[in-house]
Specification:
This protein has ten helices and 27 strands. The chain is α/β, with parallel strands linked by helices. The chain binds flavin-adenine dinucleotide.
Length: 382
């Protein structure tokens, strides 16, 4: 009889976090059809949150949420709860219970990084589902003419600012950032995005760093002040501190340090995936915190887990990209084709975000990036 059918030898794989990476990993392991493996997925809610649509949740143009039972393989055991600490052989949950594991997939994603600004409690966010609902409630209650400031000129800030301006044209929306919005994109793409933002009446102020936020104004590090009754933070993301709290090795962004196969550098029984992992530069210097990376990282993490269970050598990560997709409101978007290492090619194609952008957004394939064009890492994010 195959040892795979021996219940006593069943291995517990626990997946921490049912986002893009965790869901992909759980489904891929279960798709192997191995009766010797049990997969338990721990998530704070029984739903999958479609984070790439959270700016739409805030403006009421998307639900952004799906039952985990629809997203995960029917054989996945779903456990609703929050991991408090990772121990030697089990995870301790906030409710006081524990979850034993033989192998752990660490997939807890990322959150808003407020570490370098005072008054973070006065900001709204779109990094989580509740945060987006709170922002949505706040936007609904604002009087016409109220100043709304989105901090961050990266792709998230652009998407959030455009979405709010399009949905609430009577609000006075500004986008403030250090670098020019979409600074990493070629001129033709940037110009299209800036044109659309201006058409939506979004005021753009770049070359500034926010040092303090209050309920009514923002202060910049040059001492200047602008009024802002609703400030939305899209100025950067960081990983949750669960790994650090558990005594696991992390980088400056709180991400679990892993080897080229995504195995934690200190713990051969923990595999990191998605926004919450930091693999070495030689395989990951080009990888941003993004859903387009989280999904293939989840797939690779699943393969690593299966190899470890079989006593085989896991393969090193080899991940390349084909495009970045940016929506600027509901009626305009840019599909920016990229090289394997995620650096943009020119020119980009304008796109209708409901159609091509969002479908292509997770387009990615496994291939090796061209080393000579690999950009400096790793704090870049969506
Ligand atoms: C508004 C917005 C728009 C975006 N648009 C794009 C885009 O167009 N393209 C793109 O590529 N990327 C985009 N991103 C980035 C993308 O959403 C993230 O990079 C992606 O979600 C990362 O996937 P993940 O699986 O690593 O983490 P997540 O999707 O964040 O999932 C992590 C999961 O872990 C759970 N979790 C956290 N802590 C614990 C714990 N202690 N115990 C149990 N569970 C826990 C969380 O609740 C969550 O369910 C966008 C992000 C935002 C906020």
């Amino acid at each position: 009889m195959s040892t795979h059918n021996n219940i006593a030898e069943r291995k517990n794989v626990v997946v921490l976090g049912a986002g893009y990476a965790g869901s992909m990993a759980a489904n891929r392991i279960l798709a192997a059809g191995r009766p010797d493996i049990t997969v338990t997925v721990l998530n704070p809610r029984p739903q999958f949150v479609e984070r790439v649509r959270l700016h739409q949740v805030a403006t009421g143009t998307s639900d952004g949420i799906h039952a985990l039972t629809e997203v995960l393989d029917p054989d996945a055991e779903i456990r609703v709860g929050v991991a408090e600490r990772i121990g030697e052989h089990d995870v301790m949950l906030e409710d006081g219970t524990t979850l034993p594991f033989d192998l752990l997939l660490y997939a807890v994603g990322s959150t808003r990084d407020m570490s370098r600004v005072a008054g973070g409690t006065h900001t709204f966010g779109v990094d989580g589902y509740e945060e987006s609902l709170w922002l949505g409630n706040a936007l609904e209650s604002l009087d016409d003419g109220t100043r709304v400031t989105v901090v961050g000129g990266g792709l998230t800030g652009i998407e959030v600012g455009a979405e709010i301006a399009e949905r609430y044209p009577a609000l006075r929306v500004s986008l403030v950032s250090g670098a020019e919005p979409a600074a990493g994109l070629p001129l033709s793409s940037r110009e299209g995005i800036l044109r659309r933002l201006r058409a939506l009446d979004v005021q753009i102020r770049s070359g500034v760093t926010v040092s303090r936020v209050t309920a009514t104004f923002i202060e910049f590090d040059d001492g200047s002040v602008v009024s802002s009754e609703c400030t939305v933070w899209a100025g950067g993301f960081t990983a949750p501190d669960l790994a650090a709290r558990s005594g696991l090795p992390v980088d400056a962004h709180g991400r679990l340090l892993a080897d080229a196969s995504l195995i934690c550098t200190d713990r051969p029984d923990i595999v990191g995936i998605g926004d919450a992992v930091a693999p070495p530069r030689e395989v990951a210097a080009h990888i941003r915190m993004s859903c387009q990376a989280a999904i293939p990282l989840g797939a690779h993490g699943a393969d690593t887990v299966l190899a470890l269970l079989d006593g085989a050598s896991p393969r090193p990560l080899s991940l390349g990209f084909v495009a970045q997709c940016i929506s600027v409101g509901r009626r305009y978007g840019v599909v920016q084709s990229t090289r394997r290492d995620d650096t943009p090619r020119s020119p980009a194609a304008p796109s209708t975000p409901r159609t091509r952008s969002r479908r292509a957004i997770c387009a990615s394939r496994t291939s090796t990036p061209t080393p000579s064009t690999t950009p400096a890492p790793t704090s870049r994010r969506w």
